[in-house]
Design brief:
The complex is a heterodimer of chains A (about 525) and B (about 525).
Chain A lengths: L7 H20 L3 H27 L12 H24 L5 H25 L10 H29 L1 E2 L2 E2 L10 H47 L2 H17 L7 H22 L6 H23 L2 H25 L3 H5 L26 H10 L2 E6 L1 H5 L3 H13 L3 E6 L9 H9 L6 E3 H4 L8 E5 L8 H4 L18 E6 L19 E5 L2 H12 L1
Parallel strand pairs in A: 3-4, 3-6, 4-5, 6-7, 7-8
Antiparallel strand pairs in A: 1-2
Helix pairs in contact in A: 1-2, 1-10, 4-5, 4-9, 5-6, 5-8, 5-9, 6-7, 6-8, 9-10, 12-18, 14-15, 14-18
Chain B lengths: L3 E4 L14 H9 L3 E5 L10 H7 L2 E3 L2 H7 L2 E3 L13 H4 L5 E4 L7 H7 L5 E4 L14 H20 L7 E3 L2 E3 L3 E5 L3 H12 L3 E5 L6 H6 L3 E2 L22 H17 L2 E4 L14 H6 L5 E4 L16 E4 L2 E4 L9 H18 L13 H6 E4 L2 E2 L45 H19 L7 H21 L6 H12 L3 H8 L6 H30 L6
Parallel strand pairs in B: 1-2, 1-4, 2-3, 4-5, 5-6, 9-10, 9-12, 10-11, 12-13, 13-15
Antiparallel strand pairs in B: 6-16, 7-8, 14-15, 16-17
Helix pairs in contact in B: 1-2, 1-11, 6-7, 6-11, 13-14, 15-17, 16-17
The chains are: A alpha/beta (about 525), B alpha/beta (about 525).
Chain lengths: ~525, ~525
């Protein structure tokens, strides 16, 4: 068999890997197939890497075999193993409450990798061949830019989510520089403008290489015709001369421009995410998820690698959908998020919102225990506050105890409960809550009127009836869980303060609502003691 | 001026129900309506005028003033002739809306009358049986009451205990009850009979009801003939069945009749006379003192001996043919009926945006006349053509309520979810695209090929990710983190040079961090997914 026939194998393997990746995402459509889906993804990844290594070993379409140095192999294997080890440790150690940070960090890695791959691709561009195509050079330019924005944007998001960086507190509040839109526009325009000299310089570097490669071709033709020693020497000379100038150099102007581009887009990423409040991180992380996909896709374009292209597109659209869902759930426009400057993180209470009249009913643990004892149908609405108070394990004990007594206990999850799409589901799953009693807002809202008791734990805005009725409310139009339709609601809360959006909650003043003030974990512990 | 809802006193003889209760009046007022109730409208349902007044309704002193002031008139029975010779439909003011049972199929003359002037009429009996409209479905809520009451009527006439007794004075075995038709009424009858302690068996032509019957604690009777005929027509009603099936069914009932003490029949086929299932010889074979309650009496009865509206005794067996079972439970029947109406009005936009909106499937299907114009029957459903097989009628009755999207993960994410068939087509598309594009001699420029692959992949991603359940969005993110690590390929290509130059070093760093993504992403996803467990596992 001709060695060249192997060329097809990596491509077929890439195809298989792409399909496995699609199946991997498809597997997540329900909990039963999800684990299989993850395995598909892993198998796809192994196939893809093996195929790539095979691709390095077999001759390319033009019959040339790569020469790979021994040191390069060593570095390749060492870095892969090291990275794998670091990743494994991180995955093992991360607390589920810290998932948003981990996800943000992993996004930043994809961004950084895209930048590095972009620059590395430019440095290895085959100037005498297709490497100096304008389209190819622009793909590199774009890939580096998207990668850098993803990188620094995600690093800022990561720092905001964990609250500190280099031992210093990172505030959640948005940083709103004066004229920030102008600043963004100037940065973007600069990046576009710099592309012109970058292209010019790279093409100039390429000119002698292209000329030489033309001569080389002619010489090769001559050698084939004549097969003299003279022509052979000519081919060898030209070929080694071409080798010397076939790649762009690091001391050129274009390389400098590429580095400046990296710096400017890094700055842009930092600025875009700094302008977004910590409360709105679910949207931002989703958006960065999308960006990381586009960065990978851009790398696919510049490397002419279909698998990278497909994977990037899958991840990019996945992130886009999550961002859309989150925006819907928070009642924001996507443009608002992309260009930053939204989400006040509980700063100044918003001016809007009708003043609420009425009285708040404060209750105690005994009364709640009594209510729970007699309820046939109980709904629990958890918010991130529950995770902050580390009350989820007690809440699970509470719900499984009531269920063992025949009470229909279910959890109602708002899309933005938690700090990442689906974060609350993971937190509840970790606490041992069976997933089939954890329902999405849309699935459970119709059942609210038939519910005897609703426990709202560390959630506020997501149960605000004002979102449906009060047009002056800043969160008007945001879909909410209609707990006020239930027989009785009990809100477990530290104080009577407003939620993230800074909006007062008319639910607290409803006749059938009771407030159980105090730390959620303590309250749940007392409740369990009374019920046992 | 707010829209005025008027609640008249029902005129049909023996009717005790009323279309509103103080509770529903309060809800209507909260929605912004004015409510006016005819004097003594609720007396027979134990809601005197005072409680309506206390709830905020005004009391209309006589029938005429009530009908004249009505913007929306809500009642229970179809408009009919009053004892003084006037017709209720003629009292309906021009421009006003009637909400009641109408049964337009059976009441052609009434439909004719409603078209005079510019009236609007909504038939509660034509509200489609879709999940969203369950809360407005009076047929279901009334069927539930009828099923309950049927058992009590039977218990009243039956000379024995329902539950088995073991006493010093001897012991009895539990009453044996057969329920035919496991729709809402049938299931309610099963539940009631079970809670009185009887042993219950039930039959329905729709095998799908087996699970529901068993969940109520009754035994489901199976026929020897294969039950592959689905027996279910569009809208969850029973269909008409083949001759062979009918014979097997009758044989089964004949055998059961000798054994059971109580038979409750609830078999109806929409728009047809009730199927005859309990024949005279079966009645004769029953033990004296046995009771048959025929819920289909109004449509002619499932039992040949039934006399609608009366109790008759035939060879010692009592046959109850009451057609007013719901009216015999007037307090709660009124409450349920009234709540169904409140839900319908809320669906119509409440007092503020009150409209008869034909974009809404519920109103499209249930509106008989709009502004004097006949709008019934509605345009047929495009998706599910009725496949009525010409055969003899058999069993069944109003369908059970659709399982609520309640406990469990069963409620799949609806929006834009792709069926498996779509998925396969899409995957094929991308496969073909990739094969085409990796071929060396493709006639299209390489960049264009790449863009095509990219767009196709975006499309697939979009479709696939919409089908991901929201509960798994965090694992989705971490697994996309992991597969983004495929950028390691770029790093590999960078390192794979002959020497360790800048490009190779950059590539090596890319490999390092991409490997973190791959290992970290897949492992943390696995860790998370292992936490998700079902109840009981």
């Amino acid at each position: 068999m001709e060695l060249q026939s192997f060329v097809a194998i990596p491509n077929v393997a890439y195809l298989g890997a792409a399909i496995l990746f699609i199946l991997s995402l498809g597997g997540l459509s329900n909990q039963e197939t999800a684990r299989r889906g993850n395995t598909y993804g892993l198998v796809g990844m192994i196939i893809a890497i093996a195929a790539t290594i095979l691709l390095l070993l077999v001759p390319d379409a033009y019959g040339t075999v790569r020469e790979i140095g021994r040191n390069n192999w060593a570095v390749l294997i060492a870095t892969a193993l090291l990275g794998g080890a670091i990743g494994s440790v991180m995955a093992k150690r991360v607390a589920m409450t810290a998932m948003p940070q981990l996800v943000a960090l992993l996004h930043s890695f994809v961004g950084l990798a895209a930048v590095l791959v972009g620059i590395s691709t430019w440095l290895t561009a085959d100037l005498g061949g297709h490497g100096s195509d304008v389209v190819h050079l622009l793909e590199i330019w774009l890939g580096v830019a998207i990668g850098a924005i993803t990188f620094t944007g995600s690093v800022v998001a990561w720092a905001k989510l964990r609250g500190w960086l280099f031992g210093r507190r990172v505030p959640g509040a948005p940083l709103l520089l004066p004229g920030r839109h102008v600043l963004n526009a100037v940065l973007a325009l600069a990046c576009i403008g710099m592309a012109v000299p970058y292209l010019a310089d790279t093409t100039a570097q390429a000119a002698p290489a292209i000329e030489l490669s033309g001569q080389l071709e002619a010489a090769e033709d001559a050698f084939e015709r004549l097969e003299t020693e003279e022509t052979r020497a000519e081919v060898a000379r030209l070929s080694s001369e071409l080798q010397a100038i076939n790649h762009p150099t690091t001391d050129s102007r274009a390389f400098l421009l590429l580095l400046i581009l990296t710096c400017l887009t890094c700055l842009l990423g930092v600025h875009l995410v700094l302008a977004i409040g910590g409360a709105d991180m679910p949207v931002v992380v989703s958006l960065l998820n999308s960006y990381s996909g586009w960065a990978a896709a851009a790398a696919g374009f510049m490397l002419a690698n279909d698998l990278l292209l497909v994977t990037g597109a899958l991840v990019g659209s996945s992130g886009a959908i999550l961002s859309y869902i989150m925006c819907k759930a928070m009642n924001r426009s996507i443009w608002n998020v992309v260009f930053g400057g939204f989400g006040t993180d509980g700063g100044s209470p918003s001016a809007g919102g009708a003043t609420i009249e009425g009285e708040v009913t404060i209750t105690d643990v005994e009364e709640v225990a009594e209510l729970a004892r007699h309820a046939k149908s109980v709904m629990i609405v958890p918010g991130y506050g529950m995770a902050v108070a580390r009350a989820q394990h007690l809440v699970n004990e509470f719900s499984s105890m009531l269920r063992s007594k025949g009470c229909n206990v279910r959890y109602a999850i708002h899309p933005v409960a938690g700090r990442l799409p689906g974060h609350m589901n993971v937190l509840l799953a970790e606490a041992g809550v069976p997933y089939d009693i954890v329902l999405e807002m849309d699935e459970i809202n119709d059942d609210c009127p038939d519910t005897d008791l609703v426990l709202i734990i560390g959630a506020n805005d997501v149960v605000n009836p004002g979102a449906e009725t009060d047009e002056s409310s800043p969160i008007f139009g945001m879909p909410v869980i209609q707990v006020w339709k239930a027989e009785t609601t009990v809100v477990l809360k530290r104080s009577l303060g407003a939620g993230y959006a800074g909006v007062g909650n008319p639910l607290f003043y409803e006749e059938n609502n009771k407030m159980l003030l105090g730390d959620a974990k303590d309250s749940m512990a007392q409740l369990m003691a009374l019920l046992n | 001026m707010a829209i005025r809802i008027a609640i008249p006193k029902e005129v049909s003889p023996g009717e005790r129900r009323v279309a509103a209760t103080p509770d529903t009046v309060k809800k209507l007022i909260k929605m912004g309506f004015d409510v006016s109730v005819e004097t003594s409208a609720g007396t027979l349902a134990n809601y005197p005028d005072e409680v309506f007044k206390a709830a905020g309704a005004s009391i209309a002193p006589d029938t005429d003033s009530l009908w004249e002031s009505a913007d929306v008139l809500c009642k229970i029975n179809p408009p009919q002739l009053r004892s003084d010779g006037s017709h209720e439909a003629d009292s309906l003011r021009d421009g006003s809306t009637l909400i009641s049972l109408i049964f337009p199929g059976q009441n052609a003359e009434l439909v004719e009358r409603l078209q005079q002037g510019s009236k609007t009429a909504i038939a509660l009996d034509k509200i489609p049986r879709i999940t969203r409209a369950q809360k407005m479905d009076v047929l279901s809520s009334m069927a539930n009451i009828a099923g309950y009451r049927a058992v009590l009527e039977a218990a009243h006439l039956y000379g024995g205990f329902f539950s088995g007794q073991i006493t010093a004075a001897g012991k009895t075995r539990p009453a044996q009850v057969l329920v035919i038709g496991a729709g809402v009424a049938g299931l309610a009858a099963i539940g009631t009979a079970r809670s009185l302690g009887a042993e219950v068996r039930a039959f329905d032509v729709r095998p799908a009801t087996k699970e529901q019957v068993e969940s109520m604690g009754a035994r489901f009777l199976m026929l020897d003939v294969p039950m592959d005929e689905s027996g279910e027509s569009s809208g969850g009603y029973a269909n008409i069945m083949s001759d062979e099936f009918l014979q097997a069914e009758l044989a089964c009932f004949a055998e059961q009749a000798r054994d059971v003490d109580i038979i409750i029949t609830t078999a109806l086929i929409p728009g047809r006379p009730a199927p005859e299932l309990i024949l005279q010889e079966m009645v004769e074979s029953m033990k004296p003192g046995s009771v048959i309650v025929d819920l289909a009496a109004e449509q002619g009865g499932n039992c040949t001996a039934t006399v609608p509206g009366e109790v008759v005794t035939s060879s010692g067996v009592h046959i109850v043919g009451y057609t007013d079972l719901t009216s015999r439970l007037p307090t709660h029947a009124s409450q349920f009926f009234g709540t169904n109406i409140v839900n319908l009005l809320s669906d119509m936009g409440g007092a503020e945006d009150f409209t008869v909106n034909f974009e809404d499937e519920v109103l499209l299907k249930s509106t008989i006349v709009r502004d004097g114009e006949l709008t019934w029957p509605p345009p047929p459903d495009p998706e599910k053509p009725a496949t009525a097989t010409p055969a003899k009628p058999v069993v069944a009755e109003a369908p059970a309520p659709r399982k609520k999207s309640g406990t469990g993960h069963g409620a799949s994410s609806e929006p834009l979810a792709v069926g498996p068939r779509n998925m396969i087509a899409l995957t094929l598309a991308i496969v073909l695209a990739l094969i085409g594009f990796t071929a060396e001699s493709a006639p299209v420029p390489h960049f264009v090929q790449q863009v095509t692959v990219f767009l196709l992949a975006c499309f697939i991603g979009w479709q696939v990710v919409w089908s991901v359940t929201p509960a798994l969005h965090t694992p989705l993110m971490s697994v996309t983190n992991a597969i983004s690590g495929i950028i390691v390929v770029g790093g590999l290509l960078g390192v794979a040079g002959s020497e360790l130059n800048t490009a190779a070093v950059l590539g090596a760093v890319a490999i390092l961090i991409a490997s973190i993504n791959i290992a970290g992403g897949f492992l943390v996803t696995q860790r998370m997914l292992q936490m998700f467990r079902k109840e009981g596992n």
